[in-house]
Amino acid sequence: MPAASPRLSPQATKTRILDAAEALFIGGGFESLSMRQITSAAGVNLAAVNYHFGSKDALIQAVLARQLDPLNDQRVALLDKFEAEQGERLTCEHVLAAMFLPAVRMFRGDSAQSGRYLQFLGRAYTDPSPVVRDFINTHYIQSLGRFFFAFQRTLPDLDRADLGFRLHFALGALSGVLAGGNTQRLIRDFTQGHTDEVFLLSRLSTLMVAALRAPLPTPEKTNIFSDIVRAHDASEAAAQPAGGEGVAHA
């Protein structure tokens, strides 16, 4: 008669559930996640999930907090350090370094685990589920505010709305890349094979700085695009049959 499987401790069971939910979340996002998938992947029953977490929402919040809390703490500590050291000399590059360096160092090992971690970050910051978005926006509201204020200090020519717009799209685009299936290969291609953290950090920051510091469109530039759109609309209208001719009738 085969020996019975050793009974898992409560903490080991909880960790197994978190690991399974995290892998499924990376693969398909919150909305595609089901309790049946989680229990099957973790090798536990539904009662164990309910005992440790109570609900799917609470479980995914625990998954997010397990990875994002330590990362967030490192980011804020680094920003505190740069602000204390630089004072009025703080630059946009310092703020971006505080934001990116902790995550970049996770990739330094070039292992499957580091690639999965970056995929997790990409998924966490791009998943459209209100459960995920609300958790990040409320649980990390103080640190998000700290970074936004630091960007405001270093980019005084941008008003609050325009800075928020640029950060949203620049960080969203980067997160979308990280959420892809072959993050490690993409980053190796992006850095031309370099694994040095300074090289990767400088490349990522250069893209972000370009987006954040780009000059606002002048009236002349706006007029150029206005002329392009008007010309396009005019050509589209001219291509339409006059008086509804050419429209099929029943």
UniProtKB/TrEMBL annotation:
Protein's UniProt keywords contain tRNA-binding: no
Protein name, UniProt field: TetR/AcrR family transcriptional regulator
Domain HTH tetR-type: 11-71
Taxonomy, superkingdom: Bacteria
Transmembrane segments: none
UniProtKB keywords: DNA-binding, Repressor, Transcription, Transcription regulation
Species this protein is from: Aquabacterium lacunae
DNA-binding feature ranges: 34-53
Short name of one Pfam family: TetR_N
One annotated GO molecular function: transcription cis-regulatory region binding
InterPro entries (alphabetical): DNA-bd_HTH_TetR-type_CS (IPR023772), Homeodomain-like_sf (IPR009057), HTH-type_TetR-like_transc_reg (IPR050109), HTH_TetR (IPR001647), PsrA_TetR_C (IPR041586), Tet_transcr_reg_TetR-rel_C_sf (IPR036271)
